[in-house]
Task: structure prediction
Amino acid sequence: MDEKKLPLRVAPDLAFNVNTQIKEQLKWLIGIGHIEPGDMLPSTSQLADELGLNLNTINNAFTQLRYEGLVTMQRGRGTQVVDGIQTERLRKERLSMQKLLEKTICEAVSAGHDLQQLFTASLAYVLLSTPRTQEKLHIVLVECREHDHQFLSEAIAQATDCTVSLLFLEDPYPNGEESDEILRHANFIITTLIHEDEVKSRFACYDKKIVVIGTTVDTSCLLQISRLESDTNVTFVCLGKTGGEWMANQVRDAGIDHIHFGTLGWNDRERLPSVLQQSDIIYASSSVFPELKKLASEKVELFPIRLEKTSKSLLDEISKQSIRR
Result:
């Protein structure tokens, strides 16, 4: 999609730094639907020129959005809003806030209040009136872009009630002060079995406990696939081809070999039309299922992934540590 002109502004005298101001404005625009999943954000250089800011400031704001699972950043392509669980959650939160904020601002203006002073006073009021709570543990999930990292991030957050940041193996680390700070302040680094050796080697310098988890396929899905007619053309689709191959291997390992296997990465859009036409049935990971379902509702089924029992136990232990803090 074409880049949108965004109504961003900065206020140097505001309590929050400029980087946070940019990030939160973008989150608001995504949350209320002004920026939609699939939209491309303006380039960092374009925003830096428009706002008169340093390029690193915009880069840091975009990077934080990526860590929160709201955008993807690819060289040569740009920054795109993700159609995933985090984006959906943000939209539910912000849309419910919008009417309340509009009403509050209208009443504040009518009463002659300065909005920035009201904002600062509101922050102070919240800090003073909210009971002191223990800070959540911070987990860094290290994964590759081709697997269903959105599912993993959400599953870890739900199982542990910890703050989860996402880093990709395709990126060099540390690649800046921000990523270095995230890693140094992490309580745990989590990765999957397939990446265990690489993660332990690359992140050993941070002296953090590395927890290795695994995923498996829901038995009901394997049973459904086993009942397909012989020679059925089945394609497994994930964010990347590697993820699709992992899905197909789970089916092969279950002893199912009477169907024709195919794999596709959601990032391979050139092959997508032919795959949709040639496949009898398509199993999609949760991260790509909603969009694929729109394209071929009669063919697309969800490939339900879940955490292995041992992985749930490991995350339960982390959760207990968080409660004890």
In short: The longest helix spans residues 85-110. The chain has a mean pLDDT of 87. The chain is about 45% helix and 15% strand. The chain has three domains: 1-125, 138-214+309-324, 217-306.
